């Protein structure tokens, strides 16, 4: 039995693992992909203290390396369910089951779909959710980015190094993105905006995307625009389906904790983007990971 099983090795989970392992606990971390979580899809990180500028994959490896030193056990698996049976917590993957005294849910969030006709059909044929992964396939093309948050605007700037032009379409007349990111986009000659408008349909031929049908939400006017690629950044949904039976989420699936990162189920902690909170950042994920790693230690010393 593990002292703690951490689900997800993004910045939150890796930090919780480091703190728990340094307290000499038996720690396992279950992950379905590469360590780093969303950081792996981030080209440049400029707001993580200690680094002027570091790539997401590089910061991921820097967080991962100490886990080996402190003998955190890496387990590959896609977690389907977390069961609580009194003091025993069970984590169930597609082909295995693991037991632990405590669980730390650090599963983060996943991009939200736009939900318009053509989106599913043209995914990977011109529709993408990851500029870092796919941007280089769209050299010298006119691209569309959907959304007005940090991700949309930052990734639009990133895409200008490949694209002929990048148009950001936003449903309001004001961006949600941080001011410093907005200013960079407004100063970039390759970036254009379509304000107060939404994509109604993604169009294409048999092989790939050719453009979009757009509606101006103020006037109701419809117009067609040609684009070679469409990048969708309209927010995130919590990856919390595995705890949906535990009664620890709000109506949108975000996990509710107190400031100690404990949920209403004793011995079940939640940290990082999966939590109900305002600021989803690497720095906040790491801070919450430290609190939970230490919280696990206190829980185990008090209960066992
Ligand atoms: P995540 O990073 O989402 O990691 C969760 C991990 O859990 C993943 O590895 C996932 O595979 C795993 N997981 C999920 N479900 C399961 C399951 N069922 N079974 C097993 N494993 C599972 N923040 C900044 O501070 N600065 C930035 O510059 C910045 N840029 C960003 C750019 C983009 C494009 C995006 C999308 C986000 C950016 N962010 C940035 C936000 C930041 O990346 C997140 O706040 C942070 O990664 C959250 O960390 P986390 O550990 O909570 O979750
Ligand atoms: P977000 O902040 O939730 O923004 C989503 C954007 O999409 C909003 O502008 C929203 O419009 C728009 N939108 C939502 N649903 C839509 C729909 N159906 N049709 C059209 N537009 C729609 O999400 P995010 O940008 O992915 O960021 C997620 C988190 O990661 C945030 O906490 C963010 O701060 C963080 N992040 C940080 C950085 C950084 O620090 N450098 C970089 C990237 C992400 P409205 O504005 O009208 O709501």
Automatic annotation (TrEMBL):
Instruction: List keywords of the entry alphabetically.
Output: Disulfide bond, FAD, Flavoprotein, NADP, Oxidoreductase, Redox-active center
Q: Which GO terms describe its biological process?
A: removal of superoxide radicals
Reactions catalysed, semicolon-separated, are: [thioredoxin]-dithiol + NADP(+) = [thioredoxin]-disulfide + NADPH + H(+)
Which EC numbers does the record give?
A: 1.8.1.9
The record's InterPro entries line, in alphabetical order, gives: FAD/NAD-bd_sf, FAD/NAD-binding_dom, Ferredoxin-NADP_redctase_2, Pyr_nucl-diS_OxRdtase_2_AS, Thioredox_Rdtase
For the protein in the UniProt heading, the enzyme class is oxidoreductase
The signal peptide annotation in the UniProt record is none
* Co-factor binding comment: Binds 1 FAD per subunit.
Which Pfam family is an annotated match for this chain, by its short name? Pyr_redox_2
GO CC, any one term: cytoplasm
Show the GO MF annotations: thioredoxin-disulfide reductase (NADPH) activity
Q: Which residues form the FAD/NAD(P)-binding domain?
A: 2-289
Q: Which cofactor does it need?
A: FAD
Decide whether keyword Transcription is in the record: no
Q: Which family does it belong to?
A: Belongs to the class-II pyridine nucleotide-disulfide oxidoreductase family.
What do we know about how this protein assembles, alone or with others? Answer: Homodimer.
Q: What is the name listed in the Swiss-Prot or TrEMBL entry for this protein?
A: Thioredoxin reductase
């Amino acid at each position: 039995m593990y002292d703690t099983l951490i689900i997800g090795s993004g910045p939150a989970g890796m930090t919780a693992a480091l703190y728990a392992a340094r307290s000499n606990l038996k720690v396992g971390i279950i992950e379905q992909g590469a360590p780093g979580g969303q950081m792996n899809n981030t080209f440049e990180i400029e707001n993580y203290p200690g680094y002027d500028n570091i790539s997401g994959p590089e910061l991921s490896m820097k967080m991962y390396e100490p886990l080996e030193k402190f003998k955190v056990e890496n387990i590959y698996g896609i977690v389907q369910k977390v069961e609580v049976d009194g003091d025993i917590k069970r984590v169930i993957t597609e082909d295995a089951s693991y037991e632990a005294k405590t669980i730390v849910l650090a599963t983060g969030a996943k991009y939200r779909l736009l939900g318009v006709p053509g989106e599913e059909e043209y995914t990977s044929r011109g529709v993408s959710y990851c500029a870092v992964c796919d941007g280089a396939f769209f050299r010298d093309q006119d691209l569309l980015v959907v959304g007005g948050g940090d991700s949309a605007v930052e990734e639009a700037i990133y895409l200008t190094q490949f694209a002929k032009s990048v148009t950001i379409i936003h449903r309001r007349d004001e961006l949600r993105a941080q001011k410093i990111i907005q200013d960079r986009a407004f100063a970039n000659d390759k970036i254009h905006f379509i304000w107060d408008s939404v994509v109604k349909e993604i169009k294409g031929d048999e092989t790939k995307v050719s453009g979009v049908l757009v509606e101006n939400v103020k006037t109701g006017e419809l117009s067609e625009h040609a684009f070679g690629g469409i990048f969708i950044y309209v927010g995130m949904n919590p990856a919390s389906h595995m705890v949906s039976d535990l009664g620890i989420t709000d109506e949108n699936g975000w996990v509710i904790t107190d400031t100690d990162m404990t949920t209403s189920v004793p011995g079940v902690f939640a940290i990082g983007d999966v939590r109900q909170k305002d600021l989803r950042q690497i720095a906040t994920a790491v801070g919450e990971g430290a609190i939970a790693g230490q919280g696990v230690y206190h829980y185990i010393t008090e209960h066992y």
